[in-house]
Amino acid sequence: MVKLSLCEVMVALKEEFSTEKWSRQSVKKILESYDETCGDWKKFCKFDDHCYYRVVIDQGNDRYNLVVLCWNVGQGTPVHDHLLLSVSLKCARGRYVKLGFDFPGGREGELKCSGGGNFMSG
Asked: Does the CA dihedral 87-92-97-46 come out positive or negative?
């Protein structure tokens, strides 16, 4: 697999999202081809002792956002909803835990964890 720089990933994502026929699988492949070892993502990173840091680095075609998220050890993100959006993640350094949640009795019911997993860089 050819490894891409962050700039090349941005170009590839813009190209993928330039038509109505973009696919989640193609986006995943682009993100997987990113060479995080080159460190070009580091210039966007900032770590805060109190909360995670989020910066949008590309609003490609108004169809997606390419975002760098930074957490210190032990930090988390509140449970939130992406509504009808599709989310793909790539871990550049360290590891993260992703959990999914559902409302089995409808939005008025109790929130239940529906699964998750541990993910590492590489």
From this structure: negative
Residue 56 class from Cβ within 10 Å (0-12 exposed, 13-18 middle, 19+ buried)? Answer: exposed
Measured in degrees and rounded to the nearest 5, phi and psi for residue 18 equal -75, -10
pTM: 0.78
Q: Answer yes or no: are the C-beta atoms of 94 and 88 closer than 8 Å.
A: no
pLDDT in tens, 53-110: 999 999 987 888 899 999 998 898 888 777 767 777 788 888 888 888 887 777 777 8
Q: Please state, in angstroms and rounded to a whole number, the distance separating the CA atoms of residues 21 and 19.
A: 5
Q: Do 13 and 28 contact (CB within 8 A), yes or no?
A: no
Contacts for 9 with CB less than 8 Å, ≥ 6 apart: 30, 31, 33, 34, 66
Q: What are phi and psi of 77, to 5 degrees?
A: -120, 135
Residue type, 3: K
